[in-house]
Amino acid sequence: MSNETDETERRRSAEAEYRKKLSDLKDVKAYIHLAKMDKKILEDELAETEKELEHLRGCGYQVAHVIKPYDNGRFIVDAKVSRYIADCSSKLDKEKIKAETRVFLDNRTMTIMGILPPELDPEVQNMLVEAPGNITFDALGGLSDQIQQLRESIELPLLNPEIFRTVGVRPHKSVLLYGPPGNGKTFLARAIASNIGAKFMKVVASALLIGCHGEGARLIRAMFRYAREHQPCIIFIDEIDAIGGRRLAMGSSGDREVQRILVELLQQIDGFNEFDQVKVIMATDRRDTLDPTLLRPGRIDRQIEFPLPNKHARMQILHIHSAEIAKEGEIDYEAVVNLSEGFNGADLRNVCTEAGLSALRADRDCVINEDFMKVPTSLSGVPTRSCGIEENLASNGNCIAVNEI
Ligand SMILES: Nc1ncnc2c1ncn2[C@@H]1O[C@H](COP(=O)(O)OP(=O)(O)OP(=O)(O)O)[C@@H](O)[C@H]1O
Ligand SMILES: [Mg+2]
């Protein structure tokens, strides 16, 4: 009996011992797991620190241009200081490296370590209009002919070049928008850009004259290079008269700089093909001063006039700009249109704004017919922009037309 009790006791203690060992094993396993996790964290930190040390010890990279492939996956590169025959990192796709590709080289081994995007002039970058704004053609009144002509010359060849090949005609390269100020030239160019998914580069020609000697011509080259590399692309040169004026035999150094820019522009326009997906739109309110070499077909293939709006167009523009205005009662648009003879699109937009301000002055939160009627009479006394530079010059005997200087 006592033997049996001893045996049971021994078993119980062995079982308790076993359970304790099991629990210890579990703890040890949990400890190992935690230690492994710590080790992983430390290893990551070590790798990161080593990488940083490597960066600190290294002497950077050099930017270079590939001149041409050499042999066995090696390339001749131009690194400004000197030319090298450079190996290429095994991680790079050699197929992507061609002549003119911008790459970076390891400073010690002169191995091509990566491909860089093409160099972009910061000033050309500024000309790129990321979003020309969400402008639809409906926001322009009385310009249906101009819209159709511009879409035919710019949009159709960009979106559907095949049609031209089928018919066998050469698409237009560039278009000139001209007419008195404030009639929607710039506005239409922005509308066309927002309508096509093409890159849109905008420059006001006078901005090319700022900067040192030769800078404008360099910018023109950079713009066209960018456009060729990022087709389809529209280049919009506003106020082209600033650089496109008639060339004179004699001139100051400033005139010669302007001429240099114009010659560069002509060369660049001649340099691309009608079937390239690059189109140029120029705008001016002084077509009469432009150099005939710029105006000839092949440089400017189509000239689209933006005249002062007639009665029908004025009515449309007025409706567009007054659409969002809170109005009360009947507005006699017919009378406003009759009173605004000689007004341009910008003036008509102003009429709507002034009517709104007149309502505010009278402590009203909506515009009534009277507000609209007051404005054209008050505005017509002021010489509006619609008078045009020519007319202003003509009315002022002291002024000499620019092309006569
Ligand atoms: N046909 C039009 N329909 C609606 N709005 C117009 C129209 N024409 C002009 N406008 C208004 O006038 C403003 C000025 O027009 P825009 O800047 O296009 O004139 P522009 O012809 O380029 O003048 P400039 O020769 O002085 O540069 C536009 O923002 C637009 O609000
Ligand atoms: Mg303009």
UniProtKB/TrEMBL annotation:
Recorded GO CC terms: cytoplasm; proteasome complex
Record localization: Cytoplasm
Record flagged with keyword S-adenosyl-L-methionine: no
InterPro entries in the record: 26S_Proteasome_ATPase (IPR050221), AAA+_ATPase (IPR003593), AAA_lid_3 (IPR041569), ATPase_AAA_core (IPR003959), NA-bd_OB-fold (IPR012340), P-loop_NTPase (IPR027417), Prot_ATP_ID_OB_2nd (IPR032501)
Coiled-coil regions listed: 32-59
Main subcellular localisation: cytoplasm
Highest taxon of the lineage: Eukaryota
GO molecular function: ATP binding; ATP hydrolysis activity
Keywords, sorted A to Z: ATP-binding, Coiled coil, Cytoplasm, Nucleotide-binding, Proteasome
Cited SUPFAM superfamilies: P-loop containing nucleoside triphosphate hydrolases
Pfam family, one: AAA
Domain AAA+ ATPase: from-to ranges: 171-310
Family: Belongs to the AAA ATPase family.
Stated name of the protein: AAA+ ATPase domain-containing protein
UniProt lineage: Eukaryota, Viridiplantae, Streptophyta, Embryophyta, Tracheophyta
